[in-house]
Design goal:
It contains 6 helices and 6 strands, in the order βααβααβααβββ. It is an alpha/beta fold and about 140 residues long. It has one domain: 5'-nuclease (Rossmann fold, 3-Layer(aba) Sandwich).
């Protein structure tokens, strides 16, 4: 089944200074590449570019960040459409999540994903058949 990946997971996969989160995110991304199950949205790729060039500890040059974004264009990428926008506003109203998170969730739903890998939403939360999974959570000891 296709799985949607939120921006934060992609950032950790690219940020070698993120320690264990980098390792966990990188392993997940590699598996999604190999299985060809990864799904993203234009919004996620926009956020990835901005974060890699401005918000990480060692920002990347724009050309390097764009090269990373271009690699992800081989995945299934959900476009930002008027229909997605309207559906996300409705989802936001029903669930009380942020508008930006609602856009991510709605894109995952529109793509038929059964999982949404994200650190921002509540792990275990469901939106219909979509399950939020935090692949970066530390195991409880």
């Amino acid at each position: 089944m296709p799985a949607f990946v939120d921006t934060n997971v992609l950032v950790y996969a690219e940020d070698g200074t993120a320690g264990r989160k980098h390792d966990l995110a990188r392993d997940l991304i590699i598996n999604l590449w190999n299985d060809r199950d990864g799904v993203l949205s234009v919004q996620v790729l926009q956020e990835l570019y901005v974060t890699l060039t401005r918000k990480v500890g060692k920002p990347l040059p724009p050309g390097k960040a764009l090269a990373i974004v271009r690699e992800y264009l081989s995945w299934v990428v959900v476009d930002n459409t008027p229909g997605l926008l309207v559906a996300a506003v409705g989802l936001q109203g029903r669930t009380r999540i942020s508008f930006w998170d609602a856009l991510v969730v709605q894109a995952a739903l529109d793509a038929g994903c059964d999982r949404l890998y994200s650190e921002d939403l509540n792990a275990g939360q469901r939106f219909g058949s979509l399950l939020v999974v935090n692949p970066l959570a530390q195991p409880v000891r």
